[in-house]
Amino acid sequence: MGIPSYEPGSKVDVSLFSHGLLVGSSVQQYEYLPFLSSFNISTTTISAEGGTVVTLHTRELPNGGNRLLQCFIVNTYVDAVILSPTSLQCISPALHRHQGNGSLAITVDGSELSDVIDMNIVEAARVVYHETMTVTG
User: Fold this and answer.
1) Which of 12, 77, 90, 121 would give a disulfide with 71, using CB separation of 3.0 to 4.6 Å?
2) DSSP assignments along 93-137, one per residue
């Protein structure tokens, strides 16, 4: 028996079983959302200072005006802005104490809905200006 096919947004009846026994007394109804497993990302390098714009493109984002789409970046949720039915954008948070490797995932209403993407977190570039002084005397 395989996994049945559902249309995105359709209602799915779910019963929980443990060791072959039904757990709970009723069937719970959930909304089916497809897992986002194939998408392109604008960058995999983000600044530890925060503020890096990350744009993700996929085949189709979950629809519905009441959904909370977020990016989960290194244990921090940041709200996503939907750009189109197939793309969204997040701005990375400040990650001052985290440099090196990190991860990003898309969440819907707090549940992970995508593959985890490996991210590279780098220290922000610093520019130092030196002024040349002329001493006469």
Assistant:
1) 90
2) PP-TT--EEEEEEEEETTEE-B--EEEEEEPPP------------
- Which residue type occupies 5? S
Q: Are 83 and 60 in contact (CB under 8 A)?
A: no
Cβ-based neighbour number of residue 113 at 10 Å: 20
- Structure tokens given for 92: 């990375």
Lookup: tokens for 20 = 């072959």
Specify the pLDDT at position 58: 82
Tens digit of each residue's pLDDT (9 = 90 or more) over 117-129: 888 898 876 777 7
- Closest to 58 (Cα-Cα) out of 93, 33, 30: 33
Three-class secondary structure of residue 79 per DSSP:
strand
